[in-house]
Amino acid sequence: METLNVRMEKDSTTRTGETIACNKKEEPFVPLISNRTNYSEVPQHYVRTPTERPNLDEVVLSLHSIPLVDLQGLLSDSTRPQVIRQIGQACAQYGFFQIVNHGIPDVVSNRMLEVAEEFFSMPVEDRMEYYSDDPFSKTRLSTSFNIHKEQVFNWRDYLRHHCYPLEDHVHTWPSKPAHYREVASIYCREVRALALRLLGAISDSLGVETDFLDKALGKHEQHMAINYYPKCPNPELTFGLPAHSDPNVLTLLLQDEMPGLQVLNNGHWIAVNPIPNSFVVNIGDQLQVLSNGRYKSVLHRAVVSSSKARISIPTFYCPSPDAIIAPAPASIDNEHPALFRSFTYHEYYQKFWDRQLQGNTCLQSFSLAHQQQQEDSQLLENSTEEDDL
Questions:
Q1: With helix as H, strand as E and coil as C, how does 279-300 read?
Q2: Which stretches of the chain are DSSP H helices?
Q3: Dihedral over Cα of 136, 138, 143, 144: its sign
Q4: Which of 225, 129, 47 is nearest to 39 (CA)?
Q5: Residues 6 or more apart in contact with residue 276 via CB below 8 angstroms
Q6: How confident is the model at residue 14 (pLDDT cuts 50, 70, 90)?
Q7: Within 13 Å, how many C-alpha atoms sit on residue 88's CB side?
Q8: Helix/strand/coil for 168
Q9: Higher pLDDT residue, 65 or 197?
Q10: Which end of the chain has fewer CB atoms at under 10 Å, N or C?
């Protein structure tokens, strides 16, 4: 296995050949944090500064920290309106909710979790066949978030691949474990069907046509990640993933029994406890734009544990790259002007990956208020230059 060396001469994280430079003391750095299991302490290049640490003692612990929605009610004309209201309230007030009776058989979800664990239990050399630090590779095993940009790394490895259209991508997925492609294919089909049901319900909650979001996404894309968060000797010093929002439309999260997801609500981090046979659903940045700010894409993060590794499997339901994203016309009136300019999803996604997870979203860069501020600043700068002549 190849190793990378951490050098201290530079202040920013760069990659030259097999070297990562970061603002830490020199010590070996392996491409995957899970390639070692004998950490007695967190390596320096994973340690956050005191002001950036998770402050785990301040996290709000509650049995039902985010709304729980029973999707069984969507199947009945008499109960569907009530469930639609619940989903709309959850999207507006939390940006997150958990769902039960969602229609995906437990055996499908459990087999996906099992094969995910099998993948990260394989020998290092088998896993490293899929390693890439190119964020635009459609199937890749990698670590942290974007090691080209980061000075401090995240306590996470992940396998990520595209899922839709399935026939375009399945041949690029890992061939080990031997049944990975079969299990993941069944899972991806089931999750896509669930995502489409949710998009219809969310459209109804916005008061637009049921197929509005379906049409707004163009040809649609679907990505999946398997996040592996190894045991960590000092969870209070680092993150699995720091605060961020998701760039896509909708995220559906399957997770094992280990807690780790935390959501920012009213200025407080609240822990989301896993519920057996459930999914966590969260609003992505594109849905905040399409709803003209009515529904919120909120910050969330993943913390790690010293007692056990954790696996989570998010499915990111996305527009196609050429889809033009803009506030729904029905969401705009004299009292509710458009908050965002139109853009292609490709433009947004490029900007998302070109930055670090900085505890905020890319949305500000696409807001009309931000655009106006830039134009005003440019006018002021031009006026100052003319005065100097």
A1: EEEEECHHHHHHCCCCCCCCCE
A2: 80-93, 106-121, 124-127, 166-169, 180-206, 212-216, 285-290, 345-353, 368-388
A3: positive
A4: 47
A5: 257
A6: very low
A7: 16
A8: helix
A9: 197
A10: C
Structure tokens, 304: 């790690």
Angle ∠(93,345,245) on CA atoms, nearest 5: 35
**Which residues, other chains included, contact 101 with Cβ-Cβ below 8 Å and sequence gap of 6+?**
70, 71, 72
Tokens 């009292």 identify what position?
335
| Mean pLDDT, the chain, whole residue set | 88
Q: Which of 67, 364, 85, 98 is nearest to 245 (CA)?
A: 364
Burial, 28: exposed, middle or buried (Cβ in 10 Å; 0-12, 13-18, 19+)?
exposed
- Tokens of residue 72, six digits: 């069984």
| 140/162 Cα distance (integer angstroms) | 10
- Please report the pLDDT score of residue 321 as a whole number: 97
